[in-house]
Design goal:
Distance between the termini: 35 Å
Radius of gyration: 13 Å
Structural class: mainly alpha
Number of strands: 0
Mean pLDDT: 95
Order of helices and strands: HHHH
Number of helices: 4
Largest sheet: none
Number of domains: 1
Strand content: under 5%
Length: about 100
């Protein structure tokens, strides 16, 4: 697995997590652009996993660190305090990849 592919996978995961957090913690600001972003970045992750099935275990390994990056970005974008977000990722890999899943 190349460095570029790993970076791309992590970047897509961070974006999905970020928008899932914003969706959950700013329900009054939900937008089609957030939903489109979630759909697009999920597609990119699934495509990476289809092209390289060996990425699946890596995805699990980077979830916690990606979540940490996502909550830092969510704090910056939402103005919410960092402690407004759970310390551990509230979303499973299955939920992150599920096109039907949006947190309420």
């Amino acid at each position: 697995m190349g460095r570029t592919e790993r970076q791309s996978l992590k970047s897509n995961l961070i974006v999905v997590l970020l928008h899932l957090l914003k969706w959950r913690y700013q329900p009054d600001r939900r937008s089609r652009s957030w939903e489109r972003s979630i759909v697009e970045h999920r597609r990119c992750i699934r495509e990476s996993l289809t092209d390289s099935p060996s990425f699946r275990p890596y995805l699990g390994k980077i979830l916690a660190d990606s979540y940490t990056q996502a909550i830092k970005q969510a704090k910056a974008e939402t103005g919410l305090a960092l402690n407004a977000f759970p310390v551990e990722c509230p979303f499973s890999i299955a939920q992150v990849l599920d096109d039907e899943f949006l947190p309420e």
